Amino acid sequence: MKKAVVLVLDGVGIGEMPDAADYGDSGSDTLGNTARAVGGLSLPNLQKMGLGNIHPVSGIKPVSSPIASWGKLSEMSKGKDSTTGHWEMMGLVSSVAMPTFPSGFPTAFIDEFSLACGHAILGNEVASGTEIIQRLGEEQIRTEGLIVYTSADSVFQIAAHESAVSLDELYRCCRIARKMLVPPDLGVSRVIARPFIGQAGRYTRTASRRDFSVSPPGETLLDKLVEKGIAVTGVGKIDDLFNHRNIKTEHTANNSQGMNLLLEKISISAGGFIFANFCDFDSKWGHRNDYQGFAQGLADVDRWIPRLLKSLTREDLLIITADHGNDPTTPSTDHSREFVPLLVYSPGFSGLSLGTRSTFSDIACTLAEFFQTGGDFPGRSFLKEVHHDIQ
């Protein structure tokens, strides 16, 4: 009957990693810089869990006896993408960074893709998604073409107005692109459907986004769990990131829906693993450099945290973390190479410092021990440190 819950606060990094300069991310500190930008954060429940003990964050003081164990995770994989981060949490380290396209995709590929999907291609550039649909939206509607763009991350994004290209058609084109974008040279991490609605000058993206990820190239904890007959469920975009292999999720439009759905999944669970992603920090605020929205989103989650903790029993394990940074205060609108927070809670157990961990995969090692699945994952378990009933 025991449950483990991993909650990913997408993009909530906690300070630059030593190699941040290699990624153009010197000075990135998503939590610290956001706190400074708004004159300090007030997150009393996360503070009680030990968030302020991990890293200096204005407004969040260290506490002497946190109710959770605390630390931070280093990313061992090359890159700073959502797919890479989630894979590493589940024990799969990416030794080679997925390719990026700072000058757009090769013309020959774009021509082949246009022919295969039957639409003209607009853009093919590095751009902000909210900006490019304002600039090219009218032409996209008139031509019924597809707006293609990328970023500093390994993504092939396709935007279209829902009145000109139906969702089913947009998803079909994304699947075509996914099949064509193969490793190593064109093996982008994700093809992302970016539908939008509205009128010229006021276009807005919808919640019908879909991610089409490359398949994990090796075994993950999810594979081991399913092999052992342990229930696996998800909240948010998790299944897309694993190309739907051994996990099914219910997608959510925002963090608020995610909070409600996660509590529902916990309440009906007969035991097993629940993997949740709250993506607003990344998609709505980090990528748009909206530090005020980011701070408000953190406050909203913090107010909800007591309900989450109350839903757990002494046999259960909760891990709160992130997949990368996305500092809304820097000139960049892309992901940032940062440590991520680690808060680990089980009712009735006192918290202690878990230090700086060498890999996100310590989560996989911990859950493999918790569920006794076995599996050869890099890193080391912290289960005996946080759940003292384990001998």
Q: Could you characterize the architecture of this molecule?
A:
This protein is of the alpha/beta class and 391 residues long. It has 2 domains: 3-96 and 215-386, 3-Layer(aba) Sandwich (Alkaline Phosphatase, subunit A); 107-213, Alpha-Beta Plaits (2-Layer Sandwich), CATH 3.30.70.1250. It contains 14 helices and 14 strands. The chain has helices at 30-37, 44-49, 51-54, 82-89, 107-117, 129-143, 167-180, 221-227, 238-241, 255-268, 280-286, 291-310, 362-371, 383-386, and strands at residues 3-9, 69-73, 121-126, 146-150, 155-161, 190-197, 204-205, 210-213, 232-235, 249-250, 272-278, 317-321, 340-345, 353-357. It has an 8-stranded mixed beta sheet, with helices on both faces. Strand 3 (121-126), helix 6 (129-143) and strand 4 (146-150) form a beta-alpha-beta unit. Helix 10 packs parallel to helix 12. The model has no long low-confidence stretch (mean pLDDT 96).
